[in-house]
Design goal:
The protein is globular and about 70 Å long. Strands 22-21-20-19-23-24-25 form a 7-stranded mixed sheet, with helices on one face. The chain has a 5-stranded parallel sheet with strand order 4-3-2-5-6, with helices on both faces. It has 19 helices and 25 strands. The chain has 3 domains: 260 residues, Aconitase, domain 3 (2-Layer Sandwich), CATH 3.30.499.10; 146 residues, Aconitase, domain 3 (2-Layer Sandwich); 173 residues, Aconitase, domain 4. A hairpin with a 7-residue loop joins strand 12 and strand 13. By secondary structure, the protein is α/β, with parallel strands linked by helices.
């Protein structure tokens, strides 16, 4: 078996599992953050659900560690009160990013399972642990049951061959992977990375690479734990554990071999993390600000590298450099090693530990027209503010902050580029990346408690069904774009909203051309869309906003993995179809979706096509109303 198959088998009480099987998976580590945590609490309280095991359950306040937003502050306090009542530990505002704390505090170990309201929970693949981001309804179910259903994903193997070029950083490696595979060619896969150079990667480097599995559409990106990783995890936890390694004869659906000698220092152009070009392609582009931090590049090695470039230098006049360590432990290490002094003397702003940049109200956001170079993992339009965001390594970000324009660490000028008084600076060269893709070659003793351990028994006739309609009729909205992310669907500035009825007004509010969707949508509408719909974060609101509008279903070529779970667990019908063209649909045609037969009919011309079918689990949850209404 592969790594993920072994972990899932161990945590579902099975000897083995196969891709496509649906099993109940016991969860070792159960996290909720500050914005999702309030919704988790609401789901638990509204459904009168208990906490299965408070010793495996934590709150982590990392989204808004400054407590600067009143709604966030209210949500955080709601979590604190719930935590006190149920004896749940809280990593509060001064602690740092929850997924990093899970590693550094020894909460999660190689071979374990972890869930969080953080869509980058798959960062745990850095230590050979299966981490998964989920919506608040999913997390509430895990907190209550200790387990949750999961569909075993197929696995892909990527071998990094050759010698790593001098100066090629971990962020460059993962951006090169995005360049090769794009946003959705690894959609729904578990990815294992191996090779001699991969085995030499440090923990911090593995964290950087694993943290961007979500941007590739992957379920997780695993490294086989090295002796150094195993030693670190034992030292941090003080507990014995059994790591998981892939079998030599493990079966992979696809295998790729990539030559590291062909990788280049890279950055992502604004708007799409996978729109990757060499740094030289945009060298000279004037910047307004730089950001170093996030769950991808806020580790101590990242900050040491930035400090080595900033030492004895100044941030360019007029440029703002913001630095945010990922945990308080790393912040303190920066203090002890003198890195904070270097940052301050260079003119940088240093914040307390946290995610930063990824949501409204955090350090790292930018304003309209502002050009930022960032070490974050996402630069979707509006994600880190209203300006343009380039993604790059800490070395490139620090060098660019000193130069005043995008450049590499090897090409920092003696004098920075100053802002002029006229219109600007270097024009965006608009370089498009090469779209060629790589070609394919050839435990726990706690009893698993759950509902879905025997998928063959599921049917629409399950006890407790609400006899909800399986034939849906409505008018279509043809939103035929690929890679529509959750920030386009439900922007992060609205994340503090906890009442589902208030979410509908913001549906598609950040999708160009569809900003007025909420005012045009009618109850009963059905959305048809492209590939990888719902890419990005784990926010449940990106599903619930459509339910609030009375939309009946979404049909796409494919869905982002977390979005798919969130929709299914909300009892909201989603289906997939590779080709809608035989229906000859026009905007606002009336259609019929038959959930039992898995068909879509254009009622204007009578044409019908088949859809990929509902699973038994999906129908059971749909009929119950949502995941929390399904009874054991």
């Amino acid at each position: 078996m592969t790594i993920i198959e072994k972990i899932i088998a161990r945590h579902s009480g099975r000897e083995s599992v196969l891709p496509g099987e649906i099993v109940d998976v016991h969860i070792d580590v159960r996290l909720a953050r500050d914005f999702g945590g309030a919704n988790v609490v609401k789901n638990l309280v509204d459904n009168n659900l208990r906490i299965a095991d408070s010793t495996k359950t934590w709150f982590t306040f990392d989204c808004n560690p400054t407590g600067s937003d009143q709604k966030y502050a209210a949500n955080q306090q709601s979590c604190r009160l719930f935590a006190r009542e149920h004896k749940i530990p809280v990593y509060d505002l001064n602690s740092g990013i929850g997924t990093h704390l899970a590693i550094d505090q020894g909460l999660a170990l190689p071979g374990d399972t972890l869930v969080s309201t953080d869509s980058h929970a798959n960062i745990l693949g850095a230590i050979g642990c299966f981490g998964q981001g989920m919506g608040d309804r999913d997390i509430a179910a895990v907190w209550s049951r200790g387990a949750v259903w999961f569909k075993v994903p197929p696995s892909v193997k990527i071998t990094l061959s050759g010698k790593r070029p001098e100066g090629l950083l971990a962020k460059d490696i993962v951006l090169n992977l995005l360049h090769r595979f794009g946003a959705n060619s690894l959609l729904g896969y578990s990815v294992e990375i191996d090779g001699e150079e991969a085995d030499r990667l440090t923990l911090d480097e593995r964290i950087t690479i694993s943290s961007m599995a979500t941007e590739m559409g992957a379920i997780a990106l695993f490294f086989t734990p090295s002796e150094e990783i195993l030693s670190y995890c034992f030292q941090r936890s003080g507990r014995e554990f059994s790591p998981v390694f892939p079998d030599p004869e493990a079966g992979y659906e696809k295998s790729y071999t990539l030559d590291l000698a062909e990788f280049f220092p890279a950055l992502s152009l604004p708007g799409k993390p996978h729109d990757v070009v060499p740094v030289q392609a945009v060298q000279g582009r004037k910047i307004d600000s730089a950001f170093i931090g996030s769950c991808t590049n806020g580790r101590l090695e990242d900050l040491r590298l930035a400090a080595s470039l900033l030492k004895g230098r100044k941030v360019a006049p007029g440029v703002v450099l913001k630095i945010v360590p990922s945990t308080d432990e790393i912040w303190n290490a920066c203090l002890e090693e003198g890195l904070l002094a270097i940052f301050k003397e260079s003119g940088a702003l240093v914040s307390n530990a946290g995610c930063a940049g990824c949501a409204s109200g955090q350090v790292g956001q930018n304003g309209p027209g502002e050009v930022t170079i960032s070490t974050g993992n996402r630069n979707f339009a509006g994600k880190q503010g209203k300006g343009e965001v380039f993604l790059a390594s800490p070395a490139t970000a620090a060098a660019s902050a000193i130069a005043g324009f995008i450049t590499t660490a090897a090409e920092i000028p003696e004098k920075p580029l100053l802002f002029g008084t006229g219109p600007t600076e270097a024009a965006h060269p608009g370089v498009a990346p090469d779209t060629d893709k790589a070609t394919s070659s050839g435990g726990t003793e706690e009893k698993v408690s759950g509902t879905f351990a025997s998928p063959a028994s599921h049917s629409a006739d399950s006890e407790g069904e609400n006899n909800k309609p399986t034939l849906l009729e409505g008018k279509v909205w043809l939103v035929m774009e690929d890679n529509i992310d959750t920030d386009m669907i439900f922007h992060n500035r609205h994340l503090a909203i906890t009442e589902p009825a208030e979410m509908g007004a913001h549906a598609f509010g950040n999708l160009k051309g569809w900003e007025d969707y909420a005012s045009r949508s009618e109850p009963g509408d059905i959305i048809l869309t492209g590939s990888n719909f719902g890419a990005g974060s784990s926010r449940q609101q990106a599903v619930d906003c459509f339910r609030a509008l009375g939309n009946q279903a979404i049909i796409a070529r494919s869905f982002g993995a977390i979005y798919e779970r969130n929709a299914i667990n909300a009892g909201f019908p989603i289906l997939t179809c590779d080709d809608l063209s035989p229906l000859d649909l026009k905007q606002r045609d009336r259609v019929a979706v038959d959930l039992e037969k898995s068909t879509l009919t254009n009622l204007e011309n009578g044409r019908t096509i088949g859809l990929n079918p509902f699973s038994g689990v999906q129908m059971q949850i749909y009929q119950a109303g949502d995941l929390l209404q399904v009874r054991d």
